[in-house]
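Appendix B. Extra example for self-study. Work through it before the problem class; the solution is given directly after the inputs so you can check yourself.
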Amino acid sequence: MLEVKNLRGGYSGREVLHGVSLEARAGEITAILGPNGCGKSTLLKSLCGIVPAASGQVLLDGQDLLALPQKQIAQKAAYLAQSRQVPDITVGRLVLHGRFPYLSYPRRYREEDRRIARDVMEELDILDLAETPLPRLSGGQQQKAYIAMALAQDTDVILLDEPTTYLDVSYQLQFLRQARELSGSGKHVLMVVHDLSHALETADRAVLMRDGTVAIQGTPEEEYASGALEDVFGVRVVRVQAGGQWHYFTMEK
Amino acid sequence: MRRLRKNKRIGYLYAAAVGMLLLSAVTGILLGAAGFTAAELMRALGPLGADSPEAMILRYARLPRVAAGLLCGAALSVSGVVIQGVLANRLASPSVIGVNAGAGLAVTLCSALGVVGGWRLSLAAFLGAFAAVMAVSLGAKKWGASRGTVILMGVAMNSLLGAFSDAVTILSPDISIMRSDFRIGDFSAATYTKLVPAAVVILTALLVLLTLANELDVLALGDDSARGLGLNTGAARTLFLLLAAALAGAAVSVAGLLSFVGLLVPHAVRRIATGEARHLIPLSALFGAGFVTLCDTLSRVILAPYELPVGIIMAFLGAPFFLFILIKGKGGHGRA
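Solution. Structure tokens for the complete assembly:
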């Protein structure tokens, strides 16, 4: 269980999060929703100490993550940034760097680290790309490589900032399936998602943010029923059932 | 299979780099205004030849000069690798963003004050280089400058520091004689008093950097990703820039403002080998050392008994090669 209690923080002097409290459970996908600028990305970065929190707690099974040094946080929570560099290193090397938090100076990767990196690449079906430099890959493959790096970090919590943004639709769906598999393996998966229908259809729980606070949190059905989505986004949300599942659509009011 | 091929390729590149370095060292010692044969060399090295003219030339001209070429070539190339990694900007290099100019101003000031060698000169060069690199790096961070803007800040830094250097040179006529060699980059003034402190600094910085290859890779992933992997990015960035400044400063204190090598060698190695720091750092050091030393030997023999500053030869050889790899390079994915 990941409990965030009254988290405040932001960037040098400008508070973006005004007391955020939420819960995310192991084995579940928690979608973080909200309009642009409401603090979703800042929230993800604050959860793992990338942006320092001014006050509040992030409790993972009762232990306050923010009280730990950055290196130990990185052993408990992996973070996948929205905009990423494309350095000229191979996929295998990138994934291996996921083991970085586990080493001390002078950091030399161990056989165990190489095995974990290999297993993760196999799992994501990119083992054949291990020797390919990142710049030669498509956006979708680069995304997979970065996800593999986050998985190699072997953490209980995975924080994903708009993981589907630059992907083709087939990769988007593939990614959402992988996210479900991740949560299925007992991890806390928290992701910022722009696409409301993807979020509501994939997530077990959703946290709706407005102006640096949490407007409502609950299951997608609860959020839909409350009408808060329509309020916060200023759109109409409708749902239809097809293939035994609810599908959500948005349209102008 | 692919892994084997790639490892083999990297292995060949290491062999080529070491070969080039040895070749450059041997030709650098044998060739020059006074030509040596191998036999003369052996005699000069023997116990009877210790005071022969050949031995003198060897000890006080050729050896320090070759050592200076090797050290400065390695230092500037690796400094380029580090600066490019830390700024996540492949257009950067010690001469482009004003690091060399900072060291150059410090060295010019030192010569105006009569300090022409020793630890004080090395320290001043390092401080000048470090001040320049920190100014650009902190400015870039504070104002969230784009990659292009960082380069422009470096250009501005270059002209500013260059103007100070010029002013000092004009106001103290004693040092103006050596200025043009200093500005182009030249090893003819390499003496042991300059070389020994520079060598200690360069070799130490290189050894430390070889242990920090993974950190440099992770830093190049961008600040958020690097911090997400548990790296203290602020401390790492400062440490890397400190080492880059130490390398560039030491090189400038010996050879003057050698430009281009810090841009050319890292790019060439990226293109033909890899951008992974664990290979990029050692390969750039080896190729940089060999390239600069070969250029210096050429600069001594091409118009013998006259000498050209090595910077001129480096530009003549380096620029076409650089253009060639930019256009023809690995797969041609030309990204800045």
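Self-check: Chain B has one domain: 2-330. If your reasoning did not lead you there, revisit section 3.
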